[in-house]
């Protein structure tokens, strides 16, 4: 693989991922609607383009890290987007947490143009992006996954092939369904405990080492106790992810009522102006 | 504290707890409606009584480990029960997962008779009972808790004082609310993943080390993948615990819809004849 890559989506996740690719020696071409957001990357040697076509012209692969499925649809299928611009034989790697159906469409429409698409959403958050310890859940063609391993290795600690196009997104959805249940249990438990007059620190000390132990409880329990709503992962992003999972589940004929409740409750918190808080702010749904 | 104790409730949890008290040197008096269930304890030196009154006559403290709040109510408030029989000045320690309101009533009615009641439900399950590694969540009078520490130490690894009567039960309810959310997330995630055609082993390898990691996922994930419904904790017992938590939450004016969904789904599984399976059988609710 040649060293020139295109990268689109320099947000809180994308920018440190792009930087890790540069640190690994790749020549980075970026497209940004707001160039000031890419300033430090440009200062470090990334080349800024004012069109997607310009950005991908010399690249052997394009990586995207966008907000929501609508953004992905725009960048891939919009006028002047990747389907119009990317060179045949190159890779398209969408790392956005997006819809499995859209990933399948990118794969099949890309294939008609000789493009090799992978859906490769991540877990590990902004911290994992900065530290290069993300995990990639990858769907697409196995041979393409193998050839892109060096890219994943530059940005993360782990990459697993989950099957045909869309399966990376399905695996991420499965992860977020787990997160939704555990997070809801944490917030309902603390709301209950507070109402019952329990000493939350003492309760946390007990439950966090027993059968109810979880990574999220360790991370969010102390924040809930101290009233710290600062984000590790934004409520609004969880809402986006759970919407995708819930829609896929419904389409598959599954009735996942805990997922649906978690989505409804996170939407309530968002509607009350708390979308930019951390996911532990879900507790405010129960305390109104 | 003198060495004679009464113990009522020699089930899957109670019997090994009673044995650990005997191993610690206490003289054990047991009351069992089905004496054959106590045979090995009697062979080991426990004294069998055919009435509660006889069982508690020489005891400085009575420990109960029963099935459900109705059983607790019968043993404490029924004719010839503990309120009629226990000697003033002695302890009553209910380790059943039961209702906080009933624990408060036992405390206040007991106090009128000079009895010192503690509610002390446990976490750690049958394994913790056998190995003496249970955690006790204790409500009542702080001085009584302190005086009973040696008993808890004989049966468990940890005992924490949670506040006035009922708070031990409230803390246990808070723990089970956590369990309900996490377990639901696990079962919904695996049901989704299976429907999406994902390799569950590969998915488990990824999610169990990330933000969705939990003790329950570690314990139940492999069982779900291999179709092993064998119990670590019975669905029917979780139903009982979640009923108590849901009722308390409703009485407190809280709307815990994930807890309510988990209870409803576990009841569905129980109604379909799976109450004696492990809690991972909740996945069958989603796969019908």
Describe the protein's architecture and organization.
The first copy, chain A, has 288 residues and is α/β, with parallel strands linked by helices. Chain A folds into 2 domains: 161 residues, Rossmann fold; 116 residues, N-(1-d-carboxylethyl)-l-norvaline Dehydrogenase, domain 2, CATH 1.10.1040.10. Helix content of chain A is 54%, strand content 14%. In chain A, the strands form 2 sheets. Chain A has a 6-stranded parallel β-sheet. In chain A, helix 8 links the parallel strand 8 and strand 9. In chain A, helix 12 packs antiparallel against helix 13. Chain A is elongated, with a radius of gyration of 20 Å. Chain A starts with a strand and ends with a helix. The relative contact order of chain A is 0.10. The model of chain A has no long low-confidence stretch (mean pLDDT 96). Chains A and B meet through strand 9, helix 9, helix 10, helix 11 and helix 12 of A and strand 9, helix 9, helix 10, helix 11 and helix 12 of B.
What's the helix and strand layout?
Two copies of one chain form a homodimer.
Chain A: E1 4-8, H1 14-23, E2 27-31, H2 39-43, E3 47-49, H3 52-56, E4 61-64, H4 69-77, H5 82-85, E5 91-94, H6 100-112, E6 116-119, E7 122-123, H7 125-131, E8 134-139, H8 142-155, E9 156-163, H9 167-195, H10 200-207, H11 215-226, H12 235-251, H13 257-274, H14 283-286
Parallel strand pairs in A: 1-2, 1-4, 2-3, 4-5, 5-6, 8-9
Antiparallel strand pairs in A: 7-8
């Amino acid at each position: 693989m040649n060293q020139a890559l295109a990268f689109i989506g320099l947000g809180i996740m994308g920018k440190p991922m792009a930087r890790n690719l540069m640190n690994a020696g790749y020549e980075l071409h970026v497209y940004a609607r707001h160039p000031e957001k890419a300033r430090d990357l440009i200062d470090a040697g990334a080349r800024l383009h004012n069109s997607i076509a310009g950005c991908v012209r010399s690249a052997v692969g394009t990586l995207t890290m966008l907000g929501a499925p609508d953004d992905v649809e725009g960048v891939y299928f919009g006028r002047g987007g990747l389907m119009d611009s990317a060179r045949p034989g190159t890779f398209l790697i969408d790392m956005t947490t997006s819809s499995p159906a859209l990933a399948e469409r990118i794969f099949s429409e890309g294939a008609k143009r000789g493009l090799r698409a992978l859906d490769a959403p991540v877990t590990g958050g902004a911290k994992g992006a900065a530290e290069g310890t993300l995990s990639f859940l990858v769907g697409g063609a196995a041979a393409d996954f193998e050839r892109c391993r060096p890219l994943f290795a530059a940005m993360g600690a782990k990459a697993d092939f989950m099957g045909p196009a869309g399966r990376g997104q399905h695996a991420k959805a499965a992860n977020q369904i787990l997160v939704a249940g555990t997070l809801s249990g944490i917030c309902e438990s603390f709301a209950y405990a507070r109402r019952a007059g329990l000493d939350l620190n003492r309760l946390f000390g007990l439950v966090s080492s027993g059968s109810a132990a979880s990574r999220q409880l360790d991370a969010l329990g102390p924040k809930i106790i101290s009233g710290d709503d600062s984000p590790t992962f934004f409520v609004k992003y969880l809402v986006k992810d759970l919407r995708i999972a819930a829609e896929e589940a419904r389409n598959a004929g599954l009735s996942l009522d805990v997922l649906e409740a978690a989505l409804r409750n996170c939407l309530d918190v968002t509607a009350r102006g708390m979308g930019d808080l951390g996911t532990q702010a879900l507790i405010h749904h129960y305390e109104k």
